[in-house]
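Fold sample X.
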Amino acid sequence: MPSTSAPQLLGRLSAAARGPLADSRRLAAAGGALYPVLTLLVRLPQTMVPLGVLTTVALVSGSPALGALCAAAVTVGSALCGLAMGAAATWRRRWPGLLLVGVLNPLAVWWLLRVLAAQGAEPAALLPACLLTGLVLPQMGVVCRLRWQSLLAGSDRGDLLEPSQRHESVMDAVGTVLAAGLAGLLAVRLGPAAVLAVAAALTVVSVAVLLLHPSARLPPVLVPWALGRPPAPTHAARQRRRRQSELRLPPVLVPWALGRPPAPTHAARQRRRRQSELRLLPVVGAVGLGALVGSVLGAVVVFASSVDAVVSVSWLYAVAGLTSAAAAVLASAPVGAGRLRNRWVVTAAASVLAAMLLSVPDDAAGMVLVLALVGPTVGPVLVAVHGIADQAAQRPRATVLTTVTTSAMSVGIAAGLVLSAWSGEQWGYRTAALWPVLSASVVLAAALRYVHRWQRTATGTGR
C-alpha cells in the first residue's frame, strides 16, 4: 500500500500545481502577457497602507489598540471605496472616478502624515484622517475582477471567466505576502512612515497602469450575454408573453387576466428563501475569514508589543501570508462544485484547529512557527469562498455578490483587528488569541450551513 499511495499523492500534488500554471498561461494569452502580473502589483498598496498606519500609530502612541483602530478605519474606508467602484462597474466612462481616487490618495496620505507629526496620537484627529485615507484607497482586487470580464468578453473567451476569478483569489493571497514583506523591510530600514509614502506612490503608479492599459478602452460588460449567455427578457417582453399566454388559455385558468400575477406557492417561497440564503452565506464566510485575518494581525501586534518588537509586525504577518499564498496556489486548481464545498468545510475546520495554537507561543520563534501553520488554512478558504460566491449567483448577479464579498472581508478584517488588539491590550495576549478561534468558528459554521442548505435546495426537501 505505501508503494502505491506515495506515487498517487505525488501525482495529485503535481496536477494541483499544473492547474494554476495552465490557467495563468491561458489568461496571459487572452489578456496579454503582463496583465496577470499587473493584477498582483496593483494590490500592494491595499495591504501596505493599513500595515503602515498600524505600525506608525502603535509606535507613536504606545497603544496597540489605537493602532488597530486607526488601521481598521482605513480598512472600512477602503471597503466603502470598493463598494462604490463595484456600483460604477457598468458605467461606460469609469476612468474619471479611478483617476480622481489616484490623485486624492497621496494627498490623503500626506495629510495623515502631517497629522501624525503635528498632533501625535490624538484619536480625534487621527481617526478622520485614517478614514479619509481609506475612502480614497482603491480596492484594486475589485477593479481587476471587473476588468477581466471586459477583457474576456472582448476576446470572446467566456470560458476563462471562472479561471480568472480563481487567479484573482490567488493574487489576493500572494499580494498580501509581497505587501507585508515590503512593508516590513521599509519599516525596519527607513521607519514606518516610509511605508505610507511608498504605498501612496505605488497607488499613483497602479492607477496610471490600469488607466493606460489597453483593457481600459474596452466597454464594461453591461449585458449578461456578453459572455455567451442569453439576455434576460425585458419588462415589455414579459408583459407581451403573458398576454399571449392568456389568449390561449380558458378564462377560468387565468385569474391574473386583469394584470395580477399568481401568488407564489409555498414550495416556491421556500425555494426562493433557500436560494437567498445560499447567496448570503458566502458573504458571512467572507466576514468570518476577514475577522480571522484581522484578529491574527491584532494578536501579532499585541505579542510584538509585549516583546518590544512592533516594527517587526509586518515580518511576522508575512510568515502567515507566505504559507497562505502557497496553499492558495495549490487550492486554485479547478475542481467540481461538490469538492469546492467540501474544501470549504475541511479548510475551515483546519483553521479552527490552527487558530487554537496561537495561545501557545511565548517567544518570537514559537510565534513564527504557529503563524506558518495558520497560513495554509487561510489561502484555500479564500479561494473556496470566492468560488462559492461565484457559483451561488448566476451572471450578472455574481459580479455584485463578488464585490460585496470582497468588501465584507475588509469589514471583517477591521472588526477582528480592533477586537483582538483592544482585548489584548486590556487583558493580555492570551485573550487576544481567542478572537481568531471565534472568527474561524464563524467561517466553519457558514460552510456547514451552506452545505446543508445546498443539499435541501438540490433535493427540494425540508426547510
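Fold sample Y, listed below.
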Amino acid sequence: MKKLSLFGMFLLILLAGCQFENIPDVIEHQGGNFENDEYFGAFIKNIEAGISDQVDYVRYGEEGEEIVTKLRFNGSEIHVGTYVGWRTIEKFTCLSAEQQGFEESISFLLKDCSGDITGHLELASYPLSSEEENQ
C-alpha cells in the first residue's frame, strides 16, 4: 500500500510539472503601466530562432474589462486571438513579428497578417525600461 501511495504521489508531481510547461508568459498593461514587457523581446527571439512559444498580452478597457490577446508561435506562424471574457473578438495569423525602438519607447509589431486583421498591426507600444535604455 505504501508503494502504491508513493507511486501515486510521484505520478501526480510528474503530471503537475508537465502542465506548468504549457503556461504562457503574461504581459500586463493597465493604466499606462506595463508588467513583464521583457517577454515581448523573448518572444521575438524565439520566433527568430524558430522555437515554439506563447505569450498572453492582457490589458484592461475603460470599464475594467479584461482584454486578452493570445499569441501562439508554432515554429512557422503566429496564431493570434483576442478575447473579452469568453467572447472571441478577432482571430488572425501572422508570419512574423518585430520590435521597433524609438527614442523613449518600443513598439511590438505583428507583420504579414491574414484573417480578421490583414497586413501589419502595432499590438503594443511601451516605454523603454532603464535596462533597455542602457543597451
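Sample Y note: Strands lie at 25-30, 33-35, 53-60, 66-73, 78-84, 87-101, 105-115, 119-127.
Also: The mean pLDDT is 84.
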